[in-house]
């Protein structure tokens, strides 16, 4: 599937006299997958001597070796890295996500897939699942994205940034807002389509919205609620009660974007398996 793979692993040996080591591999040609595996195995072996005796570094190597093993396993068609990485030792998530083969990166978070998305090569990459699910929800409303004013709140690599790219390549005029945006209510008020992934409970109020706007709420937050046995309830980044009075369409939390994210993950995995089978049939 890939004519060019650029896989960059930056492995830092913080405990080795304060030194830094980085390795980068660029491989092209028809035998990309096997060449990438061979080169990465050589790099991992090289780093063993550098990181020997440094426990966090060895942990990174173990994780990378696991990723390499899955990359090479033809029975596995998709690999996701659960973020944030659950470890008492700090690990750079970029090192791990970029080690995943682009052909199995069903989360669409590696630099290869993210780069292709930013360039508009939507048919030659895996699209991150939550933004892809948001686009499907927008399509289901019947509202055309082309020519609309779209506002995205949040610029994370998982939601905000790829959401901006998807809306842009669908011919919307897109504004990205974030923690430094000064006139957030004014920006939101211009939006025909609003996608929120800020991580702040019920931040967007109903009176901010343009009448009839499409509102996609990606937030998951817990707020105190004595009426619940757990002592809290789940809400989004949009104040649903007030926003639903003005929005033309709005997603609930929970039960809105979340199930679509899972559905898009399954779609990407099936797509990966299909490409693998076509490659076998072509003798690749």
TrEMBL record:
Q: Name one Pfam family in it.
A: THF_DHG_CYH_C
> In what residue span(s) does the Tetrahydrofolate dehydrogenase/cyclohydrolase catalytic domain sit?
63-107
Q: Does the keyword Cell membrane apply?
A: no
GO aspect biological process, one term: folic acid-containing compound metabolic process
Q: Sorted alphabetically, which CDD domains does this protein's record hold?
A: NAD_bind_m-THF_DH_Cyclohyd
Indicate the secretion signal residues: 1-18
Q: Which InterPro entries does the UniProt record give?
A: Aminoacid_DH-like_N_sf, NAD(P)-bd_dom_sf, THF_DH/CycHdrlase, THF_DH/CycHdrlase_cat_dom, THF_DH/CycHdrlase_CS, THF_DH/CycHdrlase_NAD-bd_dom
Q: How does it assemble?
A: Homodimer.
HAMAP family documented for this protein: THF_DHG_CYH (MF_01576)
Q: What is this protein called?
A: C-1-tetrahydrofolate synthase, cytoplasmic
Organism, per UniProt? Answer: Pagothenia borchgrevinki (Bald rockcod)
């Amino acid at each position: 599937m890939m004519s060019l793979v650029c896989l960059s692993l930056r492995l830092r040996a913080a405990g080795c006299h304060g030194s830094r080591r980085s390795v980068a591999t660029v491989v092209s040609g028809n035998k990309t997958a096997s060449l990438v595996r061979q080169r990465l195995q050589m790099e991992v072996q090289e780093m063993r001597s550098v990181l020997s005796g440094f426990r966090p570094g060895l942990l990174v190597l173990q994780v990378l070796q696991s990723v390499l093993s899955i990359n090479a396993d033809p029975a596995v068609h998709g690999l996701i890295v659960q973020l944030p990485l659950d470890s008492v030792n700090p690990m750079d998530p970029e090192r791990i996500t970029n080690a995943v083969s682009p052909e199995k990166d069903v989360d669409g978070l590696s630099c290869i897939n993210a780069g292709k998305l930013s360039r508009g090569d939507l048919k030659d990459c895996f699209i991150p699942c939550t933004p892809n699910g948001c686009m499907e929800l927008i399509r289901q409303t019947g509202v055309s994205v082309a020519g609309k004013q779209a506002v995205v709140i949040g610029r994370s690599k998982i939601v905000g940034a790829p959401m901006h790219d998807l809306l842009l390549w669908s011919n919307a005029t897109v504004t990205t807002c974030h923690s430094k945006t000064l006139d957030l209510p004014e920006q939101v008020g211009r939006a025909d389509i609003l996608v929120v992934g800020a991580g702040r409970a019920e931040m967007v109020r109903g009176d901010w919205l343009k009448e009839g706007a499409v509102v996609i709420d990606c937030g998951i937050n817990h707020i105190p609620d004595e009426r619940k046995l757990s002592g809290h309830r789940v809400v989004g980044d949009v104040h649903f009660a007030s926003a639903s009075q003005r929005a033309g369409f709005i997603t609930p939390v929970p039960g809105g974007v979340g199930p679509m994210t899972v559905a898009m993950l399954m779609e990407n995995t099936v797509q990966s398996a299909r490409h693998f089978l076509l490659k076998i049939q072509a003798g690749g």
